[in-house]
Amino acid sequence: MVAGNSRRWSRDWAPFCGRLLRRLVRFLTNLLFIGDIFASPGRSLVARHLRDIVVAENIHLSIANAENAAGGFGITPTLADELFGYGLDVLTSGNHIWDKREIFDYFVRHPRLLRPANYADELPGCGVFVVEARNGVDCGILNLQGRTHMPATDCPFRKADGLLAALPADIKVRFVDFHAELTSEKMAMGWYLDGRVSAVIGTHTHIPTADTRILPNGTAYQTDVGMTGPYHSIIGVDKDIILQRFLTQMPVRMEAARHGAELHAVIVQVDEETGRATAIKRHTVT
Ligand code: FE2
């Protein structure tokens, strides 16, 4: 075949062959989502285990909720840099994102750090980010927050509608961290978005739930992914301090616990042509 013909062939047929190949072979994107990284025990777990998990599970995109990275309360620019340095691609957050004021300017330079999208638009940061995974697939990451027993925010359900409508249609792989207190509110979000996103995974309550599943229209779901941090604690805080608070109702100074470190995560496999989840499993390091 002469050079001109060869170029014409690849121009005419390469896209067709690509589409045909994609029809015949399922191309899958593997997402890792690590639950709320709590204080130095949580950060150490990520430092020690993230790369091994990425290699062993063929992870294309690593996401983690990092709102408790700084001693349990917020995240600083230094700690965000540290977590990105370990290989995390996107950091999500929640109500504690405002605890450390020095993070406010960081959002401008680092859109990979998200805050819940349903806080007021004029606040620092953004709640959605499109990132290219290691396999070249563009993925939309959304961060939303519940309203029950949480700070007052805009409706997360209607906000999700708006964000999804604004995402380009060709971004099929869509992941949602729904940071909420109430199990029922999280389940409601899972059902509300079933078939419109690849995964809805809950954060904030720090206890992994045993309801890992794929909903009927292809959305992977777990009510809470659990904390990555010290489980010899009460949701990350020194247990004696919290016990004292329950027994006396007096204000106490919170301090992160140090022992019982465990990593809790989910791995979601997504068909990048349809955006439907094909598998979800919990991944734990104890
Ligand atoms: Fe939270």
Relevant terms:
about 290 residues, about 25% strand, alpha/beta, Purple Acid Phosphatase, chain A, domain 2, single chain, 6-stranded mixed beta sheet, binds fe (ii) ion
Number of helices: 7
CATH superfamily: Metallo-dependent phosphatases
Oligomer: single chain
Number of domains: 1
Query: What distance separates the N and C termini?
Result: 59 Å
DSSP helix fraction: 25-40%
The CATH topology is given as Purple Acid Phosphatase, chain A, domain 2
Spans of at least 5 consecutive residues with low confidence: none
**Gyration radius, in Å:** 20 Å
How much of the sequence lies in strands comes to: 15-25%
Mean pLDDT: 94
Helices and strands, in order, run as HEHEHEHEEHEHEEEEHEE
CATH class: Alpha Beta
Tell me how many strands there are.
12
Task: Characterise the protein shown here.
With 286 residues, the protein is an alpha/beta fold. It has one domain: Purple Acid Phosphatase, chain A, domain 2, CATH 3.60.21.10. The protein is built from 7 helices and 12 strands. Strands 1, 2, 3, 10, 11 and 12 form a 6-stranded mixed β-sheet that branches. The protein has a 6-stranded mixed β-sheet with strand order 4-5-6-7-9-8, with helices on one face. The radius of gyration is 20 Å and the shape is globular. 43% of the residues are buried. Fe (ii) ion binds next to loops.
